[in-house]
Amino acid sequence: MSVTAAKGFEAAGVAAGLKSSGGLDLALVVNRGPLSAAAAVFTSNRAKANPIIWSQQVIADGEVSAIVLNSGGANCFTGPQGFQVTHSTAEAVAEALGVSAGDVLVCSTGLIGDQLPLDKVLAGVASAAAALGDRGEDASLAIMTTDSKPKRSVREGTGYTVGGMAKGAGMLAPGLATMLVVITTDADLPSAVLDSALRAATRVSFDRLDSDGCMSTNDQVSLLASGASGVVPSVDEFTAVLTAVCLDLAEQLQGDAEGASHDIRIEVTGAASEDDAVEVGRSVARNNLFKAAVFGNDPNWGRVLAAIGTTSAEFDPYDVDVSMNGVRVCHAGAPDRPRSDVDLSPRRVDVHIALNVGQAAATILTNDLTHDYVHENSAYSS
Amino acid sequence: MSVTAAKGFEAAGVAAGLKSSGGLDLALVVNRGPLSAAAAVFTSNRAKANPIIWSQQVIADGEVSAIVLNSGGANCFTGPQGFQVTHSTAEAVAEALGVSAGDVLVCSTGLIGDQLPLDKVLAGVASAAAALGDRGEDASLAIMTTDSKPKRSVREGTGYTVGGMAKGAGMLAPGLATMLVVITTDADLPSAVLDSALRAATRVSFDRLDSDGCMSTNDQVSLLASGASGVVPSVDEFTAVLTAVCLDLAEQLQGDAEGASHDIRIEVTGAASEDDAVEVGRSVARNNLFKAAVFGNDPNWGRVLAAIGTTSAEFDPYDVDVSMNGVRVCHAGAPDRPRSDVDLSPRRVDVHIALNVGQAAATILTNDLTHDYVHENSAYSS
């Protein structure tokens, strides 16, 4: 299902030989219309992969007929030759489908700095075009890298459907987007509405996921609308359904983060502004000492406060409360209930930080820092 | 030697029972004059420990007679009771030495959020005052926490001496200072000169050390001058000697960082400004994926570029060169020499990033991300 849950879409996932494992590594998602409206958000990393540079041009007119995605190589920092591979890939898709290359988004993921073999990519495009159908599951498998499982989500609106797929397990600290996500809908909405709905949804979902503080060069979230349901939903309802899909996918990304043994939910309340709440949550989410402590089931709240202290957020160090899994371990900047009352053995860890200066709030999702994270990212180039 | 290398200083290190190991855990350094000039820089963390809050008042008039330091507890987020412990400690030192409590700096290091036992601290102060002498080595041992060895440095100026000690192995990302450092000199200089020299020296030494991105609540670097040499050096010469001591201590901190297996030196050249060079170096130094790759002896330069891309520094992603241990692996944003040419097996790793937009440069010192780092910071509260 996933990207083929909504009416008007076909997909495929094939093995093009880009992954040394021989697994599925090239996905194609096609919008059969009647509408071909689209929106996309991209990594805010200033070092952008070739497919990002290409796709930013494609999305400019809000028209997208298809999106082709490969794992097995990021096609980033591969010079003019790498850009030519992206361009040729889009042209091959366009020719196979009878559409314009300027309406084909391209996404890549894998090791930075290696060239993609163009011949294998082109053969893969041909295979994928021939295999198109209700194959959203194959597509979601073909975009996996170090993911241990595919991420898919489908929600029903009033008479229309929103479905999506995502990949991402490391380098997970998106700025506006995360890794590769494709969402499709058969709602009948113009690209300008899709764009604002997508920005609203990603701002509170993928943008609040900060697994390891490392922003990718290839992040892309695309939303394609076929209009095939004939339903024109209200912008608010559509944004809510879209946000639910994005949040579901973001939590699946968190749950499968490289080497993680805990999914940490950092809820910041009582902030002077939402920006403050996000800054505080992100600072804690990026604190290696705190993350290592959670791995060791150690409710080391001093590391939470040390991380808050590095932010520019409005707060009084002597009027901050911190709770972990429901136990308030710090009250007014001093010890409260004993650390030993906190049970951090479940995978899910809730950290609540009350700044006590205002009414704004935000939640950041992160993971712990584990031996397996170090192992996966030292033993394998990815 | 260390803090007792310069004339006019006495020190001691005793076991006050603050460390469960029973090791040395309380140090006292006394300036016997004739001068009692001093300067200090403190953590820029907004969550400050009680001894920082106290010491910032003490240093205001540039007069310091003694500094007392304890390991075994950070005395941070311990409320009014914790501040009272700091205050009482300074008063006990003042009484034992016949000086003013307002001229006694206090430093603490250890777990955040636990109360220090005042009775043990006061007994320790009495023992230390009784043991004062040429005991800079004992003092340098008493301030260790997870350090595997003491850090000491001595340099001779023209007719005067600068010596120091430092501790710090984790939470090493100082903002203006790092962990605990005490430097003494018998040069005859007023506190205003000491202050500007210390700020100049720390800016290019401790401030360029970013082992794990985690800024402490207790960082303090103090410089005490006794004037006992009778020598009034030039400000430039003194700053150069002081900077050499600070750099030596910073490199010792790097070399003993928790769990590290590589000392990484990130040299950024061709930057538009020194701030840009520091921002780029620090961003790479804080990138967990890059740090894990170095642990695995993997010259994964794509992660270097991805980290540069998250900065606001002036650069063109397609005109950046990256070398690792002398091998240029990336030229003009594309692959250059093969990764396999790079040997990352030595402990020392040199990363050179040429931004090719200006003349400014900076070097950041960091460490790799290892299993031992995760182990030390998950298995033990510190």
From TrEMBL, chains A, B:
The record marks 109-110 as: Involved in the stabilization of negative charge on the oxyanion by the formation of the oxyanion hole. Pathway: Amino-acid biosynthesis; L-arginine biosynthesis; N(2)-acetyl-L-ornithine from L-glutamate: step 1/4; Amino-acid biosynthesis; L-arginine biosynthesis; L-ornithine and N-acetyl-L-glutamate from L-glutamate and N(2)-acetyl-L-ornithine (cyclic): step 1/1. The active site is at residue 178. It catalyses: L-glutamate + acetyl-CoA = N-acetyl-L-glutamate + CoA + H(+); N(2)-acetyl-L-ornithine + L-glutamate = N-acetyl-L-glutamate + L-ornithine. Belongs to the ArgJ family. One of its GO terms (molecular function) is L-glutamate N-acetyltransferase activity, acting on acetyl-L-ornithine as donor. This is Arginine biosynthesis bifunctional protein ArgJ. CDD domains: OAT. Keywords: Acyltransferase, Amino-acid biosynthesis, Arginine biosynthesis, Autocatalytic cleavage, Cytoplasm, Multifunctional enzyme, Transferase. The keyword Cytoplasm applies. The keyword Cytoplasm applies. NCBIfam families: ArgJ, PRK05388.1. It comes from the Bacteria.
